[in-house]
Amino acid sequence: DLQICQHRAPTCCTKKMEESYQAAVRRERTQNIQALNFELKYMIVGHITAFQEAFESLLRFAENRTSSLFEAAYRPMAKEAAEPVRELFTDLSLYILGAETTVESAVLRFFDSLFPLVYSRLINPGITDLSEDYTECLRLTRQDINPFGRYPKNLVTELSKSMWASRMLSQALSLGIEVINTTEHAALSKECSRALVRMQYCPHCQGLTLIRPCAGYCLNVMRGCVASVSELDAPWREYISTLEFLSGEMAASHDLEAALAGIRTAVNEAVLHAQLNGPQLSATVDKVCGQPKRQEGNLSSDTVVPVKEVTEMQTFVMAHTSLNNKRREFINYMKRSRTFYASLAERLCDGDLVMRDSSTCWNGEDVV
């Protein structure tokens, strides 16, 4: 009553044993593909973690530099500015990780929150009534009167260019893991599991437990079994090319490190611009939002304090050359995996599965 290992000679197998063999080949094939995938998956997961840590480190560094600007130059609003600064960098971090947000919305939200503080602490330090309605009016007015000049728009342009490539690379790495996980659990067709039993276990039914499949026969069987997965060859090669392109974009004109380090300077220039145009801004705001209550006495605004740029860039660059090195090492590894899906059958037949350098092997019907 055998369905797969039918043979003219007497046999020591039963139909139940054939069913056990089918379960065994399914389990073995999954384990074999998992073993082949392991190194590739390990590399991608490792680099997702490394890139994310490097991104977070860059963001924290840039956030600290931006916060220190307010401490150094705009002390009256330093405490209240901490929250908008924190929100800006949280939004940028979420953007890199693939959240449904944009660099533009993050930057403009930051300047919207910053304007009420600049207006009430630096331009008109005598204001005592900063009610919710008045603050909201200042936030909304910011978009119309443009107190910060061209600087918010310039910052959006600079950050969008550099962060786009980082965001895409982060998403592409996650996609790679998804593809590998899916191929590991691709179901075996009935024909494939029967062919694998015939190749690996039918010799056992004749007591030939040490004989192994012929190399050519194994390749034919495995190619049939992984035909659907092998179709990933062309898209996988394209995927590797995309990773190379994104890595190049990150390293070239879209330098994330430089763009994040430049946030401090852009914010400083924007605040200086608002201070220098204080009288005109006050006249416009009074018309739109009304005149707020002022403290008695002659309180002059803080004098404009240009910020002395701290030469931290050297430390910054040194601390993050590791990001470039990791990127290069990762792309070189991924380039070597270009033929991963094209050579799957060959690698599944590698090792101890087939008979090598021997005159006898199993061809599916007999020992040859």
Description of the molecule:
About 4% of the residues have low confidence. The protein has one domain. With 368 residues, it is mostly helical. It has 14 helices and no strands. Helix 3 runs antiparallel to helix 5.
Notable characteristics:
single chain; 368 residues; mainly alpha; 14 helices; 70% helix
Any chance you could write out the topology, listing elements then pairs?
Elements: H1 15-73, H2 75-96, H3 103-123, H4 132-145, H5 151-184, H6 190-200, H7 215-225, H8 227-230, H9 233-251, H10 256-261, H11 263-276, H12 278-289, H13 313-336, H14 344-348
Helix pairs in contact: 1-2, 1-5, 1-6, 1-11, 1-13, 2-3, 3-4, 3-5, 4-12, 5-9, 5-11, 6-7, 9-13
Give a short summary of the structure.
The protein is mostly helical. It has helices at 15-73, 75-96, 103-123, 132-145, 151-184, 190-200, 215-225, 227-230, 233-251, 256-261, 263-276, 278-289, 313-336, 344-348. Helix 5 packs antiparallel against helix 9 (233-251) and helix 6 (190-200) runs antiparallel to helix 7 (215-225).
Assign an overall shape: rod-shaped
Number of domains: 1
Low-confidence stretches: 296-311
Number of E strands:
0
Round the Cα radius of gyration to an integer and report it: 33 Å
DSSP strand (E) fraction? under 5%
Task: Give the overall average pLDDT.
Answer: 85
Q: What characterizes the major β-sheet?
A: none
Helix content: 55-70%
Sequence of secondary-structure elements: HHHHHHHHHHHHHH
* DSSP summary: helix tally: 14
**Terminal CA distance:** 26 Å
> How would you describe the oligomerization state of the chains in this entry?
single chain
Backbone structural class: mainly alpha
